[in-house]
Amino acid sequence: MNNRQKFTLKLDEHVVQGRRQFLLDNRHQHDIAEDLLQEALNEARVGMWRNDSQAGFNLGKKLFRLMDGSGSVLSSELKKCDRHKPCEFYITLPTELDALPVELLAEETGFLQVERKLNIYRAEMDRSSSWEPEDRPLKMLFMAASPIDLEERTLNFEDEEESIQRSVEEWPVELTIDDLGSLESLATTVKQSQGFDVIHLSGHAVVDLKKGPVFCLENAKGALDKVTPDRLVDAMKAYPPRVLFLSGCETGKGDKRLSLESYAHQMVKQGVPVVLGWGLSVGDTSATQMARHFYEYLALGKPVSEALEYSRESLKNQYVPWPLLRVYTDGSPIDKGLIIRKEGRQAGSDRQATYRKLNDEKVTVLEKGFVGRRRALQQGIRTLKNPNAEGGFLIHGPAGVGKSCLAGKLIEHLHSADKSWALLVFKGKLYPEVVLDECKKLFRSDQEKWEKGLEILNEEKDKEFSVLIDKLLSGVFKKHQTIWYFDDFEDNLEQVNGEWRVKEGHVEVAKALLDSLTFADYCTKFLLTSRYPFLLEILGKNLAESLTSYPLASMKGADLEKKIRQLKGIQETGHAELHKVYSGGNPRVLDWLDKVVQTHSNLDVEELTEKLQSTRDHYVLEYLGELLAEHEGSEFVRFLSEAAVFEEPVPSEAFAALELSEQTVRFTQTGVNLTLMEEERNPLDRSGSYTVHPLIRTDFWNKVNSERGKELHGLASQWYDQWLEEHDGEWNSRRHAMEHALCAGRLLSGAEHARILGMRLRNLALFREATVVNSKVKCNTRNFRQDFRRGTKLKAFAWPMIE
After folding, report:
1. CB-based contact 241:196 (threshold 8 Å)
2. Segment holding 146, helix H or strand E
3. Closest by Cα among 336, 330, 327 to 262
4. 126 Cβ contact partners less than 8 Å away, ≥ 6 residues apart
5. Is omega for the bond preceding 321 within 30 degrees of 0, making it cis?
6. Is pLDDT of 416 > 90?
7. How far apart are the first and last CA of the chain?
8. By the 8 A CB rule, do 295 and 140 touch?
């Protein structure tokens, strides 16, 4: 126990003759004029205090004076308290005064929550929970939601997840990541794990005029699901958490129009002891920083109250976000820790990937350690669970990008989580007897359930394969949900004029399966992984179109960071950035590189670079060498070389802007078909973006001479200028636009992009990244200073940043 000094403060909900009672420790002290409270409320709603510390300080002093009253009741009590001992204010406000930022309460010496060891809680004191710290690691769940159809900007949940994971990985914490963002998945995870000490939900929150405060989670297909507090409580009711952090804008803000308490407040009223929420919109970066420090202290076994003090103290010199954080409690004794921390207990956060086999060890999938691929998972589940969607899901892309791992995760969410789904697994080449043998094994595993299937195979075994498949899919498989998983389907394909078609020895099997799939009324679904998309035409119809085609590309951004942090060998080298470059974000190459550095320890940078280059070359030779050799010297290779000017995926019209070839569209598709280019799909409109395979991009770009290279950078720069005007692109596209402009000598364009990019990075407190942007502009303008100074338009906004 910390012997904390507690005070309860309350503004009465009733207004009598224009005044409200102020109560301290349930004793009426004085009355506060309602017009003064409304004046403070209006000042709070103007919001100047949000980013202006002086405005916040003035408002905090005003609120303190109102509660202090003519008798200086609060001042007197605080003088009795030891400034160095912890202190707590439990404040109860009427719903119509909820917007008062009481977290700002201040004396002349400063904010109470900063200058004193004091926490301010918004209280729901009708009920008090209790707990005793347990002798075990802290159990924590992180779930982020970013619906694909939400009008607000997409949440950068990967960075928040990564930051929180980093903050606790050194401590005894069992961190679970729920990678779907749906209420259904949350409920399942809570039950399977038998509850968590802390649940962290990250996402957008809004007030719906009909439903009131809602948290924007996702449904199983990735679309918006407006979750009310009662639905969220119901999902966690089997094992409610002790602490719930609603990391969504305005989750701590009530709604005067609807006379409703905030989302966080309602969660406390419905049984969660401690709930944290944000009173106003808060930036992703600052919100993540505060949450990270809070969890770090909880992981040390410190009390919740001390963890709050520590997180605020760590951001003492940064005004935002601590005034925006609102803590709601039912009066529980939060001067206790959630766990008992013992010296010597190992960290519980294990990022290592482990694998398991499916069906007689034919197919290997990840059992633990799957990272990222949120949109791919959503699209797969949308297809496989939707009875009105296509009959299957085809995952295609270059070797090693994680197609089988993604398929395994989809199977886990369907077959493993819901035993009503049956599973058939096939690997590589398909033959009639192989397909029928797998069906027999399934039927014999539960003869009562699959009795009709055994009858068909026994009584009509002499019939043609296509007839048997028709009867099975239109009969027994029409009644039972089943996944037919075909791994390494590329073993059944051959290349014809840059397209992939089913080989003669396997075409009849594939035709029978895909042609009969519709007979199952989409109760049965096919799941395929293949390096290449393919054609299978009958009577002018491409049967492959009965499958939803999903291109899977190499990892990048937060997904790539999380993958690298799983690999201990790479982490121990201290050269993770070097591995990123030579892996091209390909998970298989990263796994190879990890084994290389574990086998050859203590390599210097030169030796390490040589090993990395050798591993990269091995991948290119094994998986792409034959395809590259077949097209060497062709117009298609020239297209790839010049398209390699783009480092990030871009729409196909970007390649047309380079004036590369009249066959740009065909060559782009050929590149994807041969896995010499990667494709990414926009989850909203399914439009594609393309880039040359990361592991061969530099080699192809080196084929372009310097004069043509500068010309291509100029054309790329012009395309980005126009595209960013129309799309208000995010910072990564702005960075590429700047670099293309500087390489082409288009200094005015480059400096303008640098200015916008620098402002964005500084607003996010990414000062080191902003400095890198500045240095790039300086470096590229050093030889052009005289001409640069003459640009009067440029002087006004760019030169001060560069000078």
Report:
1. yes
2. none
3. 327
4. 330
5. yes
6. no
7. 56
8. yes
- How far apart, in whole angstroms, are the C-alpha atoms of residue 347 and residue 173? 6
At 87 the three-state DSSP class reads strand
Q: Do 548 and 389 touch, CB atoms closer than 8 A?
A: yes
For residue 185, name the pLDDT band (cuts at 50, 70, 90). confident
E strand or H helix that includes residue 38: helix 34-46
Q: Which residues of 718-740 are buried (b: 16+ CB within 10 A; e: fewer)?
A: bbbbebbeeeeeeeebbbbbbbb
CB 347 within 8 A of CB 172: yes
Q: Which residues of 286-316 are buried (b: 16+ CB within 10 A; e: fewer)?
A: bbbbbbbbbbbbbbbbbbbbbbbbbbbebbe
> Helix (H, G, I), strand (E, B), or coil: what is residue 182?
strand
Mean pLDDT of the chain: 84
Tokens of 704: 């372009």
Tell me what percent of the residues of the chain surpass a pLDDT of 90.
Answer: 41
| Mean pLDDT confidence for 566-591 | 88
Q: Is pLDDT of 632 > 90? A: no
Q: How many CB atoms lie within 10 A of CB 43?
A: 18
pLDDT tens by residue, 655-697 = 988 877 678 888 999 999 999 999 998 776 778 899 999 999 9
Consecutive H or E run containing 80 = helix 73-80
Q: Which residue blocks in 240-316 are alpha helix, DSSP H? A: 263-269, 284-299, 304-314
Confidence class for position 504, pLDDT limits 50, 70, 90: very high
Tell whether the torsion through CA atoms of 3, 4, 5 and 10 is positive or negative. Answer: negative
| Structure token pair of residue 260 | 């409703």
Q: Which of 197, 192, 190 is nearest to 232 (CA)?
A: 190
Predicted confidence (pLDDT) at residue 777 exceeds the cutoff of 70: no
Q: Are 11 and 94 in contact (CB under 8 A)?
A: yes
Report phi then psi at 111, rounded to 5: -65, 135
Q: Which residue has the higher pLDDT, 633 or 153?
A: 633
**Nearest in space to 466 (alpha carbons), one of 431, 513, 502:** 513
Over residues 361-378, the pLDDT tens digits come to 566 666 566 777 878 887
Asked whether the predicted pLDDT for residue 1 surpasses 50, the reply is no
Pair 403, 554: CB distance under 8 Å: no
Distance, C-alpha 200 to centroid of its chain: 13
Q: In sequence order, what are the residues at sequence separation of 6 or more whose Cβ sits closer than 8 angstroms to the Cβ of residue 197?
A: 138, 139, 140, 241, 242, 243, 298, 338, 339
150's enclosing H/E stretch is none
Q: Are 455 and 439 in contact (CB under 8 A)?
A: no
Instruction: State the Cα–Cα distance between residues 480 and 474, nearest whole angstrom.
Output: 11
Q: Supply the pLDDT for residue 770.
A: 59
pLDDT > 90? residue 384: no
Ranges assigned E (strand) in 552-621: none
Full DSSP string of 381-439: HHHHH-TTS-SEEEEE-STTSSHHHHHHHHHIIIIIT-TTSEEEEEESS--HHHHHHHH
Can you spell out the DSSP letters for 200-223? Answer: EEES-EEEETTTEEEEEEE-TTS-
Q: What span, in angstroms and rounded, lies between the C-alpha atoms of 227 and 182?
A: 10
Residue found by looking up tokens 């998309």 in the block: 533
What are the φ and ψ backbone dihedral angles of 572, each rounded to 5 degrees?
-75, -20
Encoded amino acid at 646, one letter: F
**Above pLDDT 70, what percent of the chain?**
85
Q: Which of 170, 56, 188 is nearest to 113 (CA)?
A: 56
Task: Give the residue from 215, 177, 162, 173 showing the smallest Cα distance to 197.
Answer: 173
Three-class SS of residue 533? coil
